[in-house]
Amino acid sequence: MVDDESVNITPPAQEERRLILDQPFDADLLYALRATLEAHATHAGMPDGRATDLVITVHELATNAVVHGAGTGRVRIWRAGDTLRCEVSDAGRATRPVAPVPRPDADPDSDARTGTGTGTGTGTGTDAVVADAARWPVEHGHGLWIARFLPDRFTIGSGPEGTVAVADFALPPDGHDEPFGLTRHDRGSHILLELSGSLGDEAARELAVVVREIVSADPEPRLLVDLGKVTFWDAMGVAALITAQQQVDAAKAGAMVLTGLTADFRRRLDALSPAPLTVGDTHDEAVDRLLPPS
């Protein structure tokens, strides 16, 4: 996922689209589908971590089409400018048309809360409209729920002809591969970790080691994590922050606060994390929330 404030993605529907994958599937083909998805995403220029996010999302949607639809479906992927549009459809018939409802993280004042919800990709940004398909159940923290929040845009809807889900993934701009950086500052009352560059697999490993060292050395760690210079993230980066929070929570009286997040990244963390994460809108607010009352 690119830094949300640095990229303005034009909806794929407004650009010339090029079909790069059109593949039917059933239960026996789901495993092979993963390899096909990864190959096409990587060939299109998606970084490894974000390609994995695409595979997770599309495979989960395809699994729902098999389990809760007619047992068969089709995956189509288009390249439209700097976006990969993934469409998963089943051949089943929903019991009734489903009216569109906003995704749980949608901005209540956003115009994007309205739309057709037919799975034709009308959602924009993180406020995409979601029509929950009657045959594709959603459980917080599980497959289809996660599949909603990994893409950059997501719509799903049911109608007489079945269910269609559309997930858009933005291809990274130049400079997305800036290496991960972690700078540690001991502030006396707390430790500041400044993260920069790509928050992915390498970041997850390095952050886990550093936080483990901090927690081992201090039974009451106070940790401030600044994400203001992060330029790219994927599911591994999200997992790294969740793991860091769990490491700190395991301490006797530890505390961790995040700052420097974009609004979109914050909403996704709230949706994907199994436990609430503490966030400060500004550095000073984060420090105030981190330190115990005097």
UniProtKB/TrEMBL annotation:
InterPro entries in the record: Anti-sigma-factor_SerPK, HATPase_C_sf, HATPase_dom, STAS_dom, STAS_dom_sf
Sequence segments annotated as region (Disordered): 89-126
Keywords: ATP-binding, Kinase, Nucleotide-binding, Serine/threonine-protein kinase, Transferase
Domain STAS: 191-270
A GO term for molecular function: protein serine/threonine kinase activity
Domain of life: Bacteria
Protein's UniProt keywords contain Secreted: no
Protein name: ATP-binding protein
Organism the protein comes from: Nonomuraea rhodomycinica
